[in-house]
């Protein structure tokens, strides 16, 4: 008899900047911090070059956005029983939620160009 997969789990495929991937299974109640701790404590073979010193600097990126530590997989409405892809990066701090908009407002509207003949 083969063990059945729990239909209420979320399957995550985590991708490092290097392109290496690993699949993990989590509960919808697990937060981004829980996931970072689990990955840190179960660091995959083959990821040795990317090993970090602390789970607190591991960050998840989903649909182009950094996930803050308290966000759960259930809150993201991820499909259970299917694989969802997220990026895993090492980063000390997260950008402020409105930093993208602020950066756009602060951009100088002048531009420089050079003509090559």
From TrEMBL:
Q: Which residues form a coiled coil?
A: none
Q: Which Gene3D superfamilies match?
A: Phosphatidylinositol 3-kinase Catalytic Subunit, Chain A, domain 1
Does the keyword Lipoprotein belong to this entry? yes
Q: What InterPro entries does the annotation carry? A: MUB, Ubiquitin-like_dom, Ubiquitin-like_domsf, UBL3-like, UBL3-like_ubiquitin_dom, UBL3_Ubl_met
Q: Where is the Ubiquitin-like domain?
A: 10-88
Signal sequence interval, chain numbering: none
Kindly indicate whether the keyword Lyase belongs to this entry. Answer: no
Q: How does it sit in the membrane?
A: Lipid-anchor
Q: Provide the residue span(s) of the region labelled Disordered.
A: 92-117
Identify the keywords attached in UniProt to this record, alphabetized: Cell membrane, Lipoprotein, Membrane, Methylation, Palmitate, Prenylation
* Primary location class: membrane
Instruction: Tell me where it resides.
Output: Cell membrane
Q: Which GO terms describe its cellular component?
A: plasma membrane
Q: Which domain of life is it from?
A: Eukaryota
Q: What is this protein called?
A: Ubiquitin-like protein
């Amino acid at each position: 008899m083969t063990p059945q997969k729990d239909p209420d789990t979320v399957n995550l495929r985590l991708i490092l900047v290097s392109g290496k991937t690993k699949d993990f299974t989590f509960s919808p109640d697990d937060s981004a911090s829980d996931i970072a701790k689990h990955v840190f404590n179960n660091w995959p073979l083959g990821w040795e070059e990317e090993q970090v010193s602390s789970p607190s600097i591991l960050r998840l990126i989903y649909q182009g956005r950094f996930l803050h530590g308290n966000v759960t997989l259930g809150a993201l409405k991820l499909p259970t029983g299917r694989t969802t892809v997220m990026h895993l990066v090492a980063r000390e701090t997260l950008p402020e939620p409105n930093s993208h908009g602020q950066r756009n407002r602060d951009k100088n509207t002048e531009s420089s160009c050079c003509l090559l003949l």
